[in-house]
Amino acid sequence: xxxxxxxxxxxxxxxxxxxxxxxxxxxxxxxxxxxxxxxxxxxxxxxxxxxxxxxxxxxxxxxxxxxxxxxxxxxxxxxxxxxxxxxxxxxxxxxxxxxxxxxxxxxxxxxxxxxxxxxxxxxxxxxxxxxxxxxxxxxxxxxxxxxxxxxxxxxxxxxxxxxxxxxxxxxxxxxxxxxxxxxxxxxxxxxxxxxxxxxxxxxxxxxxxxxxxxxxxxxxxxxxxxxxxxxxxxxxxxxxxxxxxxxxxxxxxxxxxxxxxxxxxxxxxxxxxxxxxxxxxxxxxxxxxxxxxxxxxxxxxxxxxxxxxxxxxxxxxxxxxxxxxxxxxxxxxxxxxxxxxxxxxxxxxxxxxxxxxxxxxxxxxxxxxxxxxxxxxxxxxxxxxxxxxxxxxxxxxxxxxxxxxxxxxxxxxxxxxxxxxxxxxxxxxxxxxxxxxxxxxxxxxxxxxxxxxxxxxxxxxxxxxxxxxxxxxxxxxxxxxxxxxxxxxxxxxxxxxxxxxxxxxxxxxxxxxxxxxxxxxxxxxxxxxxxxxxxxxxxxxxxxxxxxxxxxxxxxxxxxxxxxxxxxxxxxxxxxxxxxxxxxxxxxxxxxxxxxxxxxxxxxxxxxxxxxxxxxxxxxxxxxxxxxxxxxx
Length: 633
Ligand code: MIC
Ligand code: SF4
Prior knowledge:
This protein is an alpha/beta fold. The chain has 4 domains: 1-124, Aconitase, domain 3, CATH 3.30.499.10; 126-241, 3-Layer(aba) Sandwich (Aconitase, Domain 2); 244-396, Aconitase, domain 3, CATH 3.30.499; 449-627, Alpha-Beta Barrel (Aconitase, domain 4), CATH 3.20.19.10. The protein is 30% helix and 17% strand. Strand 23 and strand 24 (597-602) form a beta hairpin. Helix 1 crosses helix 2, helix 1 (10-23) packs across helix 4 and helix 10 (285-295) runs parallel beside helix 13. The radius of gyration is 24 Å and the shape is globular. The structure holds alpha-methylisocitric acid (MIC) and iron/sulfur cluster. Iron/sulfur cluster (SF4) is lined by residues 39, 73, 93, 95, 279-280, 340, 343-344, 360-361.
């Protein structure tokens, strides 16, 4: 795929920009590249602020737009100011598909893939299956876009979208505005989908005009005969949906709020200690207008606190202008920054064992910063009703649904976006490199045989949060691979890094959907630094699989899932992986030297992937390619 636009954020951006520098070209070769600062703005010491300055200087030097800290969350901002129907976008963040709400073809990827796209090279993915999601009817009062995507998750689960694109169509689409479509596209990521896409219609046109970007609009819809080409069609009647909730600890565990709120009967209800509203899923003006009007005239319940992270300054400016901000403040909400905040464990960690009800997209164990907290994912309506009542509440119990008025023109104020410098000035910019920004490690070519011990054996649905924990402590180490590698598998086995180094590396064994969740390539890069040679699992999540390849960790699968049971931690394994062996997908054998047994392995690697692995990773491969192109003029 040719890539028109890229986005990076600070947490994945430092490494992505270091990699772009290592590729060695003077300026980005895309139509538009934006560097956002939105994930970690805690600045408890110099590290984080240094990273921001580094990113501001690389944006200046290499021709990117730069969105300053406090301006908003990358996906919300990109939707408002840059995303356009028909454009391709890749971003070093798994929720990049948010822009599918406006009809862009937007994919989350590892930072290195984004760096390579910034260098103008094509992005490769396995051609996805297309699943049609047909929407009919119209949402009832108190039910909103979050419930639509929770319903999709209820039907297909957290791996139902792997290798697929979800294409929305049908008469229900026109009843949803662009931010609502974006909420749905955003959380399609939780199904494992490559992306989600909506048509670009009159509703899209009106949104772009309201953002003073009417000229970016083009009409786009699925071909008339597209339905016959879908591998599957999911039909959702919007009028039948009710408020839903994803219960701990997976976005795929979806239940009706009514059922959880009262334990199925008329129980006392689920007491809640925190409500958090925001994140790239639910931080648009529409969402906060609803919340503000639900909270109007109320005080939040004594037993909880309420945090608010608006998605952008545009949202805040509107809430101030319309005085709806007053309702939030008066009700007792803690107004936090326009950043990811609590969603990535940066502040507002719940108290011990607390129940936290959030409008976010992920509720993996420990992600909030509190290992034993219980996170429930809901719509803004459910969150606001819960904040008032103090227990998880079906908002339909509140009575009349507040009417909200959306502006026909948004307040446009791009003064926190620094435009790309012209090439001549840009060339003179000096890059600011903080002392915590360590050089990228160099990795050798792939050996012919992998040999070593099983360092860890894991179950199904291991997330990249499990591999590299979220939170401010690790976020400020994202530009320091030796430093961050000390946190690998921290919550599962804190001894892992020491053991891996002591044993000279080895293997990881996993179950289904290994590496689901975030796009952070540190989940491959840091294990690689510790010497992990191959990861052998039942199945992989898409972005993590690409990241393993990019950093030269061989991703292998059990041919027979039952063989998973024949390997234990500390077993010594040997696998021959010369080019010929890798090319013959069915010829790979794993010798278990400890047990004296042999099992068959397979993989999903294309010839292209094999070349990258053999070159010792994508960075070396790209540099080789650019050298060859250069020598041909
Ligand atoms: C997330 O939601 O987990 C993040 C933080 O946005 C990540 C990116 C990262 O780890 O920096 C993502 O979703 O890709
Ligand atoms: Fe930020 Fe959370 Fe969205 Fe990730 S999921 S981009 S951490 S708001």
